[in-house]
Amino acid sequence: MTDFLKTERDGHVVTLTLNRPEKRNAISSAEECAEVADACRALNRDPSVRVVIVTGAGSSFCAGGDLKGMRDRTGITRGETGAEIRESYRFGIQMIPLALYEMDIPTIAAINGPAIGAGLDLACMCDIRIASEAARFAESFVKVGIVPGDGGAYLLPKVVGMSKALEMSLTGDPITPAEALGCGLVSKVVAPGDLMDAARDMAARIAVNPPQAVRLTKRLLREGQHMRLSALLEMSAAYQALAHGTRDHREAVDSMLEKRAPSFEGR
After folding, report:
1. How far apart are CA 85 and CA 207, in angstroms?
2. Alpha-carbon distances of 26 from 165, 186, 217, rounded to whole Å
3. DSSP-assigned beta bridge partners for residue 18
4. Which alpha helices (DSSP H) does 6-161 contain, by range?
5. Do 94 and 155 meet the contact criterion of CB atoms below 8 Å apart?
């Protein structure tokens, strides 16, 4: 373990904090990538976790990759040949989207400061993004002569649309929180001091619902992005059958009919 990631739990909500403020939370090594990916996989296997918040320590969310590592061909860009660098990406930074984006648990990015390059892509791996007024966003790979290597070419167009994604990716220019809100990159912008309260409030609004139904709903929305309607309807019918068979479904219906607060067990 590298202690790159700080994990805190409050009831059914877990907060993951990138914890290298002195490096603006840049992702530097395969070990750091593995720590993030392993944490996501472990949380995904825990049925008691209902929401995950991802944020950064200090004044940055995540500055992306380590420029000195790029120059020296170390860390997540390690390798002397193209084949070696390709493997460094596959078994380094690319482990994070495969774990974080594919989580069944809803995820909220609390973007406290600059989210640059891989940092922006990390935010796009989350389901909901809330930004501080101190945040800045850039898909800046082209500025250092490389391409989005961690899934940004897949993630960003789904979030902001192809035209805006191309503008951001081909210019590398940063955008403000107001611009991010306007293009749908974030759903809310708040004062810096209110960011974590806003993220926790959103998490609480999600966590109050039946957790199995929440996870199934997220998966349907994910798969619906690339499935035919007929295939998605088949999947929806199967998931609906699972949901109807849960105790939480019966509790939800009973509590509404009895006009009382529900108590969900995740079963």
Report:
1. 40
2. 22, 21, 32
3. 5, 56
4. 30-44, 67-72, 82-90, 95-100, 118-125, 152-160
5. no
Q: Could you tell me the CATH superfamily of domain 5-207? A: 2-enoyl-CoA Hydratase; Chain A, domain 1 (3.90.226.10)
Residues 6 or more apart whose Cβ sits within 8 Å of residue 129: 108, 109, 111, 123, 180, 185, 186, 187
Q: Is 64 helix (H, G, I), strand (E, B) or coil?
A: coil
How many Cβ atoms are within 10 Å of 247's Cβ, its own excluded?
13
Find the length of the chain: 267
Are 49 and 88 in contact by the 8 Å Cβ rule? The answer is no
The one-digit pLDDT tens for each residue of the chain (267 residues) are 579 999 999 999 999 999 999 999 999 899 999 999 999 999 999 999 999 999 999 999 999 877 777 787 777 778 888 898 888 889 989 999 999 999 999 999 999 999 999 999 999 999 999 999 999 999 999 999 999 989 999 999 999 999 999 999 999 999 999 999 999 999 999 999 999 999 999 999 999 999 999 999 999 999 999 999 999 999 999 999 999 999 999 999 999 999 999 989 888
The ranges assigned to domains in the chain are 5-207, 211-258
**Phi, psi values for residue 42, rounded to 5°:** -65, -45
